[in-house]
Amino acid sequence: MKKRFIHHITLITLLALCSCKKDVNRYEVDPTLDPYLQLFLQEGSKRGVNIDVKSNGLLMEFTKLDGLTIGLCTYQDPLLVQIDGDYWNETTQYEDQENLRQNVVFHELGHGLLNRSHNNSILENYEWKTIMCGGDDVDGRDWAVNFNGYRKEYYLDELFNIRTPAPAWSKKATFDGEKGSLIGFLDMNRSYNGKDEMGNIYLMRNNIYTVTSVNKDNNSIIPLVSEQLTGDFYFEVVQKVSMSENISTTGICALYDYDNNQKYNPRKRDKQYPVNDGCNYLAIKEESIGDQFYLINSNCYLPIAEVLIKDVYKHDDYNKYALARHDGEIFFYINDQLIFRNDYQADVPYLSFGVILPALGKLDISSAELYELGTTLRSGKEVRTVGPREGEIASPIKILPKKLKDYRK
Questions:
Q1: Which residues, 6 or more positions from 140, have their beta carbon under 8 angstroms from its beta carbon?
Q2: Is cis: bond before 78, omega within 30 of 0?
Q3: What is the SS3 assignment for 196?
Q4: The whole model's pTM is what?
Q5: Residues 305-327: pLDDT tens digits?
Q6: Within 13 A of 335's CA, how many CA atoms are on the CB side?
Q7: For the residues 287-294, what does the mean pLDDT come to?
Q8: Residue 109 near residue 118 (C-beta atoms within 8 A)
Q9: Mind listing the domains of the chain with CATH numbers?
Q10: pLDDT tens, position by position, 182-209
Q11: Alpha carbon distances (Å) from 204 to 86, 364, 389
């Protein structure tokens, strides 16, 4: 997300100053924005920061802002906070709707009521240190902040107290090696050559499973292992990616049971903003300035987070991707380095595990394994090998480019 604020310095006559003085304490807040203002004041009060906005005056309104700006704070009398109406409407019915709206409103009020300027510092794990990030680009990154779950408490603490210490979840870590019991894997000892309904080409030869995309417009999710899991798990894929020019996304994913997700019903989504129902995935985007890792939930309007990490991902070579659920969190790893941990959608049943095939790209997969770390609906069943063979290739799922590229707002 792009955010910025401006200072208006205007020379005015004494007569104009006198005539406008009565408006200095004007208090007008759009009814839709007022609950977010009140929540901001409540969160501040809980942390010992009390602000009398009515006495000082405040204007909060929706408008159409230029370019990528979604929020604007103008220092004038009274203070003016503007939120882009298009962005507000576009977030409607997405699962991260409230977090995104709180984020942009709190960011602008942080400027106006807390005198906070932009701060683009990062935590040890390369996440943004504060929701007050913004302004000039930093390494081409967007301003996506995971303002959700247990992270939200830290970001609120930091918003009202810049001396808040770094949280435990921001520390770097490597995989502890605990995988659990193997319950499913991709059988590499077969020969196979075929296509799916989209025309993507599948070839199994010499213990390498190659999937080649013929789709120039969309990345696709290719399911590899299908198991219904309600407990802890560990899913690992070793693969090498070949990408076409300007198409640069691959990764690992887990599809969850959205029918059992009582928080949200994606079927009510406006057709203008279709989405793949129920998927968490780690997307890798290669850039000349470094490797960008996007943590994405397909029911969210924006990536949960964007992390820039160098010296972890190996270009033009095989990389080990892993996704694990443990103690109410989802963990994403690249080559045993923890890329991100998150409690978002960690409490729903998962149904299928796979990889992201880039548009007009190719994946060479040398292994794919699913392990059980806890009690699941599948407990007691034997280890099952998975295709590829006729009738066992699961249908790919399209990923809209907006989810991986076009989200800067």
A1: 287, 289, 292
A2: yes
A3: coil
A4: 0.81
A5: 887 777 888 888 999 999 999 88
A6: 12
A7: 62
A8: no
A9: 6-170 (no CATH), 181-404 (2.60.120.560)
A10: 998 888 887 778 888 788 899 998 899 9
A11: 47, 10, 9
